Structure formats: C-alpha cells, structure tokens
Amino acid sequence: MQCNNAASLSSSQQTPVFNGSYEQLHRYSIEQPEAFWEEQSRLIHWETPPQQILDYSNPPFRRWFVGGRTNLCYNAVDRHLADRAEQLALVVASTETDTTREFTYRQLHREVNDFAAVLRRLGVGHGDRVVVYMPNMAEAVFAMLACARIGAVHSVVFGGFAAHNLAVRIDDAQPKLLITADAGMRGGKVIPYKPLVDSALAAAQTPPPHVLVVSRGLDVDIALQPGRDVDYATLRAEVGQVDVPVQWLESNEPSYLLYTSGTTGKPKGVQRDVGGYAVAMALSMLTVFDVKPGQVMFSTSDVGWAVGHSYNVYGPLIGGATSLLYEGLPTRPDAGVWWQLCEKYAVRTLFSSPTAIRVLKKHDPEFIRKYDLSALQYLFLAGEPLDEPTALWINELLGKPVIDNYWQTETGWPALTLLPGVDMKPTRFGSPGFANLGYNTRIIDENTGEEVGPGEKGVLVMVPPLPPGCLSTVWRNDERFIASYFSHFKELLYSSLDWAIRDEDGYTFILGRTDDVINVAGHRLGTREIEESVSSNAAVVEAAVIGVPDELKGQVPVVFATLRDEHAGNRAGAAADLRRTVEQSLGAVARPARVYIVDSLPKTRSGKLLRRSLQALAQGNDPGDLSTLDNPAALDEVRGALDRGA
Ligand code: ATP
Ligand code: MG
C-alpha cells in the first residue's frame, strides 16, 4: 500500500495520488505510522528534512518529524509564489463593514512581510508570544502568518470575549505584544475593542509592553497610551517595505496556542507544533476536504476558533487554495448571504456548524435555492452533534453531500470524518463516519477499559501516539495534559471525553459528552439521544436536555426547547406534544419530567450548548464559570422559566 506523494516538494502543483480504499489506507496509517507519515511529510517544504519521523520515547508525549526544520508561513505563502502568485489566496467578505477585500498570493506575501517587519520593530522575535484579539478581518490573518514567519507563538483570542477572558489568556501566554483592532462589529453595531483591551491589560498580572492597534476607520475615538500603544498604519509607513527572512523552526517547536471552548469547565491552552501541523493541514485539504490548489474553500468560522486556524488560515493556504473569510451574521442582510458568496467565488467546499444551519432553517429555503451552487461539492459541519432533521433539511436543499465532521480544538483537524478526496463512503445521518487517517480510535467500556462491540455505548478514545497536528501538550502545563486526557484508564489512552457507539458497518456516532449522561431508574440515557428525539418534532428548532435529581428514579430528564416561529403561539400544546414524541421514540423511561419552552438556549461563543449552566440553574446551584457564555439573556430567560415552572 503506497500513496504516491513522491516527487517535487517545492511545487504545490504536485498533488498526490491515493491508491486503494479507505480501509487499506487507514490500516496502513495505523500499522505503519512512520512509513505513512514519512510519505505525507513530502506534502510540505522542509528547509532541513526530518532525521526521525517519530520519537515516542516519552509517552504520552510524542514528537513528529524530529530534526526537520520548516515554517508555517513559508508553506502557506512563499512556497506558492512560483506557481500561483496571481491567484487569489484570501478573500475577506464583511457584511458588517460592507466591504470585500481580495488578496493574491503575491499581495498576501507583501502584507505578511510588512506585518512581520512591524513585529520585529516592536522587539518581537523567535519564541515570543503574541496575543491576537481581532475580528474576522484580513489583518488578523496577516498577524498570524507574520508571527509564524518570525517564529513568534500566536495566541488568538476570539474577538467577542470579554476583558476578563482576555486577561486570563494574557496571563497564561505572557505575551510580548497584543494586537487588536479599533473595533469589531456585530449585527451592524460597532463594538469598540480598545477600551476592552485597556481594562484587560489593567487586570492582567503580566500585561505586554506594547499594544499594536489596526484601525479599520470605524470612527471610534481610541485613546493610544503613549509609549505602550502603537498605530499599525503609522509604524508600517515608518518601517517601509522590508522582506523579512523566514525563521526556520524545528518541527516540534510551538507554533501557536489556542484555548478550548470551555463548554465543560476551564478552557485548556492547546499547544500546537510546526511540522506535524503543517503536514496534517496539507493532507487533510486533499483527503478530507477534497480541495486542490487553485480551488476555493469557504469556512464560516471565526479565526479565533480551531476551525478558523486550520481551515480559514493554515489549511487552505498551505494547500495553495483560495480561502474565504466572512465577517457578519449568516442572516444579514438576508439568509442568502453565504450562498451568494458560494456562487460568486465558485466555492467548492463549504465548512460551517450545525448551529448556523439551524439558524438558517428558521428562514425561507428560497434564500438558498435562488443561487447557482453548481461549483459547491460538499458541506462539512462540525463542532456539535448534527441532528438528523437539520442534516436532512440542508441536504435536500443542496442536493450535495452533507458531511458531519468530528474533532476537537485539541486534535486541530478532523478525527472522525468521511474522506471524499480518497474514497467517498455514503453519508449516514447522525454519524461523522470513520476514523481519519492516522487516528487509531477505539470505543471502550468506561469501567473495564475493554473495547465494546457494535451497538454498545462506550467512551471514544485514541491509542497514542496521537497523529501529527494534534496538541503537543497543554501550554506550560504537562501535568494538566496528562491529567486531562491520559489518566482515565489503566491503559495509556487519550480520552476524547465523548460517548460514542459504532454500528455494524463501522460508522461511529457521537452520543454526547461523558458528563452528559442521565441515569433514570438504572437506565443510562445520553442527553444527545433525547435531544435528537425532541428535535425530530417539527415544531422544534433546538433542544437541550439535562438530568436533574429525583427521589424515586435517581435522575429525570428535563427539556429546554426553542420553537419555530409558527409554533411559538402555542407553547403549552407544544410542550405536551414533545413529551409524547420522546415517549414514543425512546420509551416511557425517557419521558421528560418537565419541558421548558424558551426563545434561546445558552451557548458558548463558539456556538455550543452550555448544558452545565442549565443543569446548575435547574438544581438551584451557581452556574459556575460563564466567561465563555455568548448570550447571558438566555440564562435570564431560563431562570424566569424555572421560577414560573414548566
Ligand atoms: P472544553 O473542552 O473547554 O469543555 P469544548 O469541548 O466544547 O470545550 P471544543 O474543542 O471547541 O471545546 O469542542 C470539541 C467538542 O465538540 C468535542 O469533544 C465534542 O463534544 C463536540 N463535537 C465536535 N464536533 C462534533 C460532531 N461532529 N458531533 C458531535 N459532537 C461534536
Ligand atoms: Mg473539550
């Protein structure tokens, strides 16, 4: 079994040929990881080739491509100048500022060099951390790539986070510089960033000596603190056009830090490497997303999330593709805005989240139908369980494969997926498919650690060493890395902390997080199963299920649901109907004890249900760390609903 990636390293025209079926290729990647990854390593440029493919002498830590020297920015930008300098590299469409900015690889190279020169002028160098706190604007991408170019470690903090979240991340990273914008925008409203940055810096223990402000001219009065704050345009003009040499890094040096969403507790600072990540990006663009050099990928994520890092910035650019970045809501000016962009730029692969599709589902499908989507081949959805009604709805509208994609900030690239670029298997609703190449996944019994059979629930784990691209460790906290992920079982295994089940054909289904299981009179029910059932009711848009203590049964399910507009008038009727739906599909044991109809559910800024906050409120407890909560009003509404009773 060979995948013929051989040949030229320098030319991004060279795309590999993957011979054989998914099963063969996957087996090869697991049974002969060094041979497999040695071949994949040729997808990127190495200034010095690796001396050793894998060093696993200190489990669970592993080092890929040891001794190899490379650079993410070189692979994402410089390497393409020979073949595709005039091709679009980056398109940034903003329905907030009503602008579309396009950059060819040549222009991107210029922007990144200018940015890197400014960073150097501010004293930033190899190994220094840089916190990037910006909206989805082109300069956020330039800043990330400029850091990568000079070997600085970026830590992008989602621009919607409050001062407190930012301060905590500053103290963890101890940056030499913070880069921000004058303002962000949401739903047409200007949100000044600078005052927020000022209070974060005041609250931080280790504030950086400098703040670099990129002004978008949003007409906000920003006060620059002399000696500390610097205006980007001013310093750029002063420094002038300089070509900044690439800092070659050993494959295992840190490239960036990124925090998990904080859905289950305090976010973990994921540390990514250089060489392994670059190889995983190059491979996944071809095998998972089926995007070749010159083709267009549109990921609707914010650059502040894992998807944004991997499939708005590094993946598409390392792959010589065109990356589309979007700033704005999916429904403004109307619910057709993403599909219009797909038509305009002949997007081949669209990557979004189930949450976003559920938002679109509230609107007229004509907003999708009216655009020419003939170039579009796939819609990938990741980040949360993809419920069947939502998947069916969008699948019928598009008539293209809707591919459920399972991964974590920690993994950096899909762990469970279909591989249309290799061997496209039929989609199966509710399942993200199979283990990705290089991922040795198992589903095991949480008590015995034994592998469970088809149809039996267990914990999804990965047999280490983790493949390239996955986290190296938790930033400056090796103990937390081991304690969080590798200390759950007798055997040394990476726990995903998610429940899963595999069917007879090997399709894996995610059943929810390991702390989201309800025990009703001895029956273990995944909250996800009940949520699926509730969502199958046509009146429902979205549902969250939690378990609350019950004297008789131990725990009982409680449902929170949002309704489609046309059903909003009859909340009581809908609640009764939902109870029946669940009872009919899952049996009396799953019958919700209470159903609360609300206008919105509490979500993290990355769009995930914050079940633990519902759980706490329903039990009269403190909702805990709400720093990643997106919509505090949703919690107030839940409080009100709980006070009034179901
Ligand atoms: P934290 O780890 O801080 O609690 P988080 O787990 O929400 O937050 P992320 O890394 O953003 O942080 O999310 C990864 C999690 O999202 C997965 O572990 C899983 O629970 C869920 N997830 C991602 N993709 C899917 C999917 N396709 N189907 C079901 N669940 C998914
Ligand atoms: Mg997690």
Automatic annotation (TrEMBL):
Q: Which residues form the Acetyl-coenzyme A synthetase N-terminal domain?
A: 22-76
In its keyword annotation, does this UniProt entry include Zinc? Answer: no
Q: Which Pfam families match?
A: ACAS_N, AMP-binding, AMP-binding_C
What InterPro entries would the database entry show? ACAS_N, AMP-bd_C, AMP-bd_C_sf, AMP-binding_CS, AMP-dep_synth/lig_dom, ANL_N_sf, Propion_PrpE
Q: Where is the AMP-binding enzyme C-terminal domain?
A: 529-608
Which Gene3D superfamilies does the record match to this protein?
A: 3.30.300.30, N-terminal domain of ligase-like
Q: Does the keyword Ligase apply?
A: yes
Please give the Gene Ontology molecular function terms for this protein.
ATP binding; propionate-CoA ligase activity
Give the highest taxon in the source lineage: Bacteria
Biological process GO terms, please?
propionate catabolic process, 2-methylcitrate cycle
What family, per the record? Belongs to the ATP-dependent AMP-binding enzyme family.
What name does this protein carry? Propionate--CoA ligase
